[in-house]
Amino acid sequence: MDSESTVVVGHTRPDADSVCSAIAFAEFKTAEGTPATPLIQGPINAESEYLLDRFDVPVPEERRQASYSDVILIDHSERAQAPADLAADQLRGIVDHHRIGYIESSRPAFYIADTVGCTATLIHELADRRGISLDRSTRGLMLGAILS
User: Fold this and answer.
1) 120 and 145 in contact (C-beta within 8 Å)?
2) For 95-120, how does the pLDDT look when each residue is reduced to its tens digit (9 = 90+)?
């Protein structure tokens, strides 16, 4: 991953929504013209492992730091749940369905949040509104996250 990369990363204890939504939103951003890479910040749980195996999607790279990358947070907006070295000028956006947490950006960043049960639901709605068709495997991961 080069210094110009955008990474999409969920919280520090990855669950199905955090993992699957990072994968889905990285694909979404790439389809929009911003190449993005999903990351996880810890080992995946059994449910996530099942979904990734079922839809033949590789486990994202595990990294707890986001040095030299633009960062989009998925499934949280908490400083304590973000990569340890995240700087305010790296934050490019947040997609979340939880409470509004404390985190700062030094430049404008998008913030997408709603009171739904899953971040994957927000990504599905956004892709639909923008006419972006995500890969069949990605849609399967999102459904799995929604059902979990």
Assistant:
1) yes
2) 999 999 999 999 999 999 999 999 99
What end-to-end distance do the CA atoms of the chain give, in Å? 31
Cα–Cα distance measured from residue 37 to residue 144, given in angstroms and rounded to the nearest whole number: 20
User: CB 2: neighbour CB atoms within 10 A?
Assistant: 7
Please tell me the pTM assigned to this model: 0.95
Give alpha helix (H) positions in 33-135: 46-54, 119-130
User: pLDDT by residue (tens digit) across 18-70?
Assistant: 999 999 999 999 999 999 999 999 999 999 999 999 999 999 999 988 777 89
Does residue 3 register a pLDDT over 90?
no
Q: How many Å apart are CA 57 and CA 12, to the nearest integer?
A: 20
Paired tokens of 109:
């960043």
Q: How far apart are CA 22 and CA 39, in angstroms?
A: 7
Q: What is the dihedral of CA 117, 52, 9, 82, to 10 degrees?
A: 80
C-beta atoms surrounding 136 within 10 Å? 9
By the 10 Å C-beta count (0-12 exposed, 13-18 middle, 19+ buried), 59 is classed as: middle
